[in-house]
Amino acid sequence: MAAKTTAKLMRVFKSDAASFAKDWQGVCERRVDTVLDVDKEVAKIIAEVRDGGDEALLGCVKKFDGAKLAALEITSDEWDAACDQVDSADRAAIGKAAMRVREFHRKRIPSSWEMREEGGGYMGQRVRPLARVGLYVPGGKAVYPSSVVMNAIPASVVEVPEIVMVTPPEPDGSIRPEVLMAARVAGVHRVFKMGGAHAIAALAFGTESVPRVDKITGPGSVWVATAKRQVFGEVGIDSEAGPTEVCIVADRSA
Asked: CATH number of the domain at 34-103+128-237, out of 3.40.50.1980, 3.20.20.70, 3.40.630.40, 3.40.50.2000?
């Protein structure tokens, strides 16, 4: 076979296979129609959550995240219990990473300043933290405590009053302990069990349970990136990140 799947994550192509050129061309092509389909579906999801609130959001969590929830927000007891499950080595690693990221961002805090001109003119810059920010942390096949640390600590360092995090739940409705441990260390105030475009919509417009935020940051799938682009203007976003692609070229000695 020209292509096979390794650990269900990476496709391998052999250059001496008869179908190599065709298989590789299929990887390189970009389907515009697929992107347009995602745009349309994301717009529907955003409208559904914006208009339907918690009821619509819980339906989306069941449909897209695969979890049937009674409540969206992590309770303090759930958070404590999850952190208790993290072993000492992981605790130390998360703590060290948080310390280094915090030290870096403390040196980057912009300062307010002002000046007066001789003719009476006045100018300056006033720097204040946003009132509330929303952090998107991916879930699924991998665990990303690093995304928590890198997104939450800059907000914590400048003393944003409320840092809200969303992340997809497991089928049983839980959140991975390492992610919640990182959230606690990084200064997150509230955590909600939801992912995908519906989570972005909830942060952008707010629901009965989820507060509306001023800015949304964090990486995610094409659904998340598309949703962030569509709600930009209602809220601020960090950037419209594209997909992460890695290609390894190796010979037989690899």
From this structure: 3.40.50.1980
